[in-house]
Amino acid sequence: MRKNVISALSVLLCVCFLSFMGVSGAGISNNTAENKNTDVVTVANNNTASNKVLETRFLNMLNHSFVYNDDFQNDQTLVNNSVLGLLNLAEDGFVNENYVTDYIFNMYGIKISDFGNINTDCEQKDGYVYIIPRGYSEYKHTFLSVTDNNDGSYTVVTDVEISLDDGSVIKDMATTVFLKNNDSQFGYNIVYSEIGTVTENTVDC
Prior knowledge:
alpha+beta; two-stranded antiparallel sheet; five-stranded antiparallel sheet
């Protein structure tokens, strides 16, 4: 019962955390049949309310994500970078595993239920994930284009401003694929996000 309450609370907090995001699965409507290829919707010509809601949802997810490039391929990296989005829920340097599980599933569609192999050389606390003290980069995205792939996914291209932990700023471009997922609190998952210049959030216990 306690775990259910915690999970429910974590989902609610995730939703509040991405406060401008709706939870409906509203998608971008298809153009006329004259378009035989994918429908590219740019910021300049995208004026419908549903498209704006979708753009806002994608942009907020991107601006609260710390997972890019090869981070998706390694569970430990995925977890360590995801807890950066949950620092407001930290308790004495740890985040409850349930919060991390819900956050990763809702954001990226990946289910992690066993944290036994995560940060094994670091401080441990049963039921919690240790937040490794470190500098990290923050990301601010601006839309360039949204492409409806007509298969439940969208490809989003953004300009991204990367604020490094040393105070310097890098400007680059990111390509992200969002896949519709009705089980996610956000209606979509980020399943791929690549930045031209690879920046690393270094982990060291």
